[in-house]
Design a protein that fits this description.
By secondary structure, this protein is an alpha+beta fold. It is built from 13 helices and 20 strands.
Length: 565
């Protein structure tokens, strides 16, 4: 079993820093530090060493003084301190770009579990980059096996029962950023190549092609997806690990100028609906009703596995490792610490020499006592300064932990509010059963906010009603928000639309020519008008309405090329 190498002497710190910066390492290194207010790190260095095995070297800076010495010996922004951990790849690109070697912080047990997993995944990525992951063991130490998953003792490991004992799957070699219990579950059969020496099971050959995995999703089907990335104008949604679908602000909220960062948070799980146009596979954000939401599941990463995503706010089942009656599941083994030689060990005389007479040593002894007294005085001063510094560092760490806790709480609140806002915008905040009452409420609310108080008397809402096809056109046409329609209807009913060039309001004609007769309704002589809801976007939407002497009738919301009233 791999061991954590404790760094407790400044000479060892210097040797470690020299090795990390040499460019001659064959394996990545993981360095973990100890917080100033704790004797041990929050990050589980033993678990990192156990799970990585021969793929990386793991070091523990034993104490605050070692962290300071390490900081002094390393390039800027590449040190480890305050209980954090960092992975150092074998190449030296991280010297110029420290973000290639990310610092992972932990100030509580919950944060420590997450940071430990991230360090393991980062180390596996670094091991893959230098060719250690993916190497096929020699035939003498490997063979194909079948087994059954017993459980997931950690977020980065799955334990499998095979014919001759137990094996471990390194989840990070399959996919990054997904916990083990979202890929494997007890009783799940797996096939792979067993390394008979380190007892790791390689199941990468079982990974399906991502496109094949989403191929069976049907038009209109709801599923869960993770927000992989999000910017102001577009986001990448991931319904299956390794398969990304990009959506634009226009596709999400019907406004090309909207900011998706107000609605989506990177890493959150969202409901989506499948859209298929010919051979094109697309997704759109959805807000399914409660019954549909309860039946929704995410795709499974491997056949027989659990859904790879949980719905928002769902609580995962506790990890379970099953045991058989004849053989218990493997338990974590305490690492064997490597003893580092002390100066006394290194310089211990091999032979005994005769000691000089006591009277010959008296002057030297007095001088040594004087030096020791001076050193004790200096040591007392340094100790007081160190204790003061530790106290300040402890107070700062508590303040930082409190700020991080508050920040996480605020991030959760923000994510929850974003979901509510998104759901409200997608569902348009329906407050009435009757769609006509809901629409009139939306128009009136928009008029209240859109028309200034001093102008409300001059620009009241004109009488209006709904045509027989109006609400059907709203339900069948995606790609524009209900709020945008409210705004344009308010502009029409108050007469503002006629003065706005952007609305492009004009009478609908029976043909494309400028001299073609206008569309007029025989029964009441009402004229059909057309006004823009969108401009400079694909299939821009238009609003058709009948203008009568006594009222306005909203006819339909249509695409740009639809010229029927």
């Amino acid at each position: 079993m791999a061991q954590v190498q404790r760094i407790a002497l400044e000479a060892e710190v210097q040797a470690l820093a020299k090795d990390l910066n040499s460019g001659r390492r064959r394996r990545p290194a993981v360095v973990v530090s100890v917080p100033g207010a704790r004797p041990t790190p929050w990050i589980d260095a033993d678990r990192i060493a156990e799970e990585l095995g021969a793929l990386a070297d793991v070091y523990l800076l034993d104490g605050l003084a070692m962290s300071w010495a390490f900081t002094a010996a390393m390039p800027d922004r590449s040190n480890v301190y305050g209980g954090a951990g960092r992975v150092y790849p074998t190449d030296l690109a991280w010297v110029q770009d420290p973000f290639r070697s990310r610092l992972h912080l932990a100030y509580s047990q919950a944060e420590a579990d997450h940071a430990t997993t991230l360090l393991i995944e980062s180390a596996l990525d670094a091991a893959a980059a230098c060719g250690l992951v993916g190497q096929v063991p020699s035939p003498e130490r490997s063979r194909p096996v079948s087994g059954v998953v017993s459980g997931c003792p950690t977020t980065s490991q799955a334990v499998v029962k095979v014919s001759d004992g137990w094996a471990t799957i390194r989840v990070g070699t399959l996919v990054s950023g997904v916990d083990a219990d979202r890929l494997f579950q007890p009783g799940m059969p797996v096939d792979g190549v067993l390394d008979t020496v380190d007892r790791t099971l390689d199941v990468r050959a079982s990974r399906p092609d991502p496109r094949t995995s989403v191929h069976h999703l049907k038009e209109g089907q709801y599923t869960w997806a993770r927000v992989a990335t999000v910017s102001s104008s577009q986001a990448a949604l991931c319904p299956y690990p390794g398969f990304l679908i990009e959506v634009s602000a226009y596709e999400v909220i019907g406004d090309a100028d909207g900011d998706l960062r107000d609605l989506l948070t990177e890493g959150e799980t969202v409901a989506v609906r499948v859209r298929r146009r010919a051979d094109e596979f697309a997704l759109e954000l959805a807000n399914p009703d409660s019954s549909a939401r309860e039946s929704m599941t995410a795709l499974s990463f491997l056949p027989g596995g659990p859904p790879w995503l949980l719905p928002p706010n769902a609580v995962p089942a506790p990890a379970v490792v099953e045991e058989t009656q004849d053989e218990p599941a493997p338990a974590p083994t305490a690492p064997v610490r490597r003893r580092i030689p002390t100066p006394a060990d290194l310089f211990r005389p091999k032979t005994e020499e005769p000691l000089p007479a006591a009277d010959q040593l008296a002057p030297q002894l007095d001088a040594a006592r004087t030096s020791i007294g001076q050193l004790n005085g200096d040591l007392n001063v340094v100790t007081q300064q160190l204790n003061s510094a530790k106290g300040q560092i402890g107070a700062l760490e508590k303040d930082l932990a409190a700020e991080r806790s508050l920040s996480k709480s605020l991030e959760k609140d923000l994510s929850r509010l974003r979901r509510k806002l998104r759901d409200a915008q997608r569902s348009d905040g329906f407050l009435f059963v009757d769609p006509a009452e809901q629409f009139r409420f939306g128009v009136y609310t928009c008029w209240v906010h859109r028309i200034q108080a001093a102008e409300k008397a001059e620009r009241p809402l004109a009488p209006y009603r709904f045509g027989p096809k109006f609400f059907a056109s709203l339900d069948s046409l995606d790609g524009i928000s209900r709020n945008k329609i409210y705004e344009v209807v308010v502009d029409v009913l108050t007469g503002v639309a006629e003065t706005m060039s952007g609305r492009d309001m004009h009478r609908l004609r029976q043909g494309t020519g400028g001299d073609d007769p206008i569309v007029r309704r025989k029964e009441d002589d009402a004229v059909c008008w057309r006004v823009s809801l969108q401009k400079n976007t694909p299939s821009a939407r238009r609003l058709h309405f009948w203008r009568h002497a006594e009222y306005i009738e909203l006819s339909r919301v249509v695409l740009h090329d639809d010229c029927l009233p």
